[in-house]
Amino acid sequence: MDYTRKMLYYTFVNEDRYIIFLRGFGNTLLLSIASFILGTMFGVLLCACKRSGNKSLVKIGNLITSILINIPTMVLLLAFVYVIFGSIHAPLTIIIIIALTMKTGAYICEIFNTSLDAVDVGEIEAARTLAMSKRQTFRYIIMPHVISTGLELYKNQFVICMQETAVVGYVAMVDLTRAASIVAARTMDAFFGLITITIIYFLIGYIAKNLLNLLQANEHIEV
Q1: Is 45 part of any domain?
Q2: How confident is the model at residue 219, as a pLDDT?
Q3: C-alpha to C-alpha distance for 193 and 180, rounded to whole angstroms
Q4: Quick check: 130 pLDDT over 80?
Q5: Could you give the CA distance from residue 106 to residue 128 in angstroms, rounded to a whole number?
Q6: Backbone conformation region of residue 17, classed left if phi is above 0, alpha if psi is from -120 to 50, else beta
Q7: For the whole model, what pTM was predicted?
Q8: How many CA atoms lie within 13 A of 56 on its CB side?
Q9: 141 within domain boundaries
Q10: What is the pLDDT of residues 75-105, one digit of tens each?
């Protein structure tokens, strides 16, 4: 018990080390939410390009998606920080958000694209036969299929997005993982720090998925 109290003190209290964890938590939350929301927008744009009738846009969308999906997040992040923005004095947080947004957007594009492919063409034609407008067809025919097919994957993508922020410590940004590493290097004991960030990561993912479940329930009520 004395050893546990001692290590808890050195992990969180001594030298105000809890501030490092708070800073890491704030950065992880910011990167996760920002890159997920912006990634959704970017994913919609990519999906629109891939499904457009313009061959050039289709090729560009396919190329961008393929590159972003096949390049590891760590490599993409290093490329953005040290190569693409290496000579530009931009805030590190912004650069990281851009990189993670593009990575997340590529995955979300594939989720949307797959969900749209699952819509029965016969139902769309039936809607047109009933003189439904494009907006009505999208809301009452296409959107429910997209939600039922892709929403679970979309919700899981936020968790994946959050997990991918764990590599930003390699470019000198303090996230939860980096915070635990910094404290462990000072205390020579990683146990309590790792337990702490494990619980925090779990809670972020759990709360986020439940919030998205509420949005899904509200959507069903509105429809």
Answers
A1: yes
A2: 54
A3: 5
A4: no
A5: 31
A6: alpha
A7: 0.88
A8: 0
A9: yes
A10: 999 999 999 998 888 899 999 999 999 999 9
Q: Which domain holds residue 211?
A: 30-222
The Cα–Cα gap between 162 and 153 comes to 14
Evaluate whether residue 6 is within a structural domain.
no
Nearest to 192 by CA among 25, 11, 28: 11
Instruction: Please give the structure tokens belonging to residue 165.
Output: 């922020």
Contacts of 205 (CB under 8 A, 6+ apart): 158, 159, 162
Amino acid at 74: M
CA-based R_g, the chain, Å: 22
For residue 173, the SS3 value is coil
| pLDDT tens track for 146-192 | 777 788 888 899 999 999 999 999 898 999 999 999 999 999 889 99
197's tokens? 């960030």
Q: Which value, to the nearest 10 degrees, does the dihedral of the CA atoms of residues 195, 201, 202, 206 take?
A: 160
- Kindly report the CATH number assigned to the domain that includes residue 60: 1.10.3720.10
Question: Is residue 139 included in any domain, yes or no?
Answer: yes
Q: Please tell me what DSSP assigns to residue 131.
A: T
From the list 28, 27, 88, the residue with the least C-alpha distance to 80 is 88
Domains of the chain: total: 1
pLDDT bracket for residue 220 (50, 70, 90): low
Q: Give the Cα separation of 15 and 1 in Å (integer).
A: 22
* Closest by CA position to 113, among listed 185, 59, 65: 65
